[in-house]
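Moderator note: this is an archived Q&A kept for reference. The question asked for a predicted structure of one protein chain; the sequence and the answer are reproduced below.
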Amino acid sequence: MDKKEWYLEYEIKYNRPGLLGDISSLLGMLSINIVTINGVEDSRRGMLLLCKHDEQIDRLKSILQTMDTISVTKCRRPKLRDRLAVRHGRYIHSDIDDKKTFRFVREDLGLLVDFMAELFKKDGHKLIGIRGMPRVGKTESIVAASVSANKKWLFVSSTLLKQTIRSQLIEDEYSPENLYILDGIVSTKRANERHWQLVREIMRLPATKVVEHPDMFVRETEYKIGDFDYIIELRNSEDEEITYETVDKSEFNQDDGFSMFDF
């Protein structure tokens, strides 16, 4: 029988010397292997475990519940968020009311890149939106995650170096293995109908699409926020407000630095 992975997380109520050793010894007696261990925010510790039988985990939980020095907060088959929490020592925070919205600050760029890379590795159609103010690191994080996921990225519209809008792709660029990046503001403010025909073709591909400024994108198109599988918010700080007051200013409306690719 193949071994199964489990995620165990507990909060330390009283951090006495030897506590981790006692828990490690208990896991050893139950023939449960520790794959990874790390502190997970404040006074919590997370572990990825490996064992053959569910009964081993049941016995572990029943014993840990008798310990007054810790409180078990999670014991389950690991989710993506659990794996990243152990890897980075912090949790990805999601919106309380909208579970598909995930929030990051600039100091979490490593965690964000890993999170997006795992999403990019999954096959099939995925529509991901990323919100954030200019120069917070949105495009750079998308590109870095693409490299980590071994995906070829294509800018359909972008402001990374200069304003770019594609109105056509060459044959080998239509691939479910590619990752397509759009800037919702550039597409809605500067694009022509040929560009939108291309966008609709790309949206039908069983591939990953990432849209920067998804709120502007849906405001001017037939697409809806509900069409997005994930919404990512990236801020410079926790209390930063994401606004679109600069949309009508020079950043998106000057002709300088604008180019149109047309194959």
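Archived answer notes: Confidence is low (pLDDT under 50) at residues 250-263.
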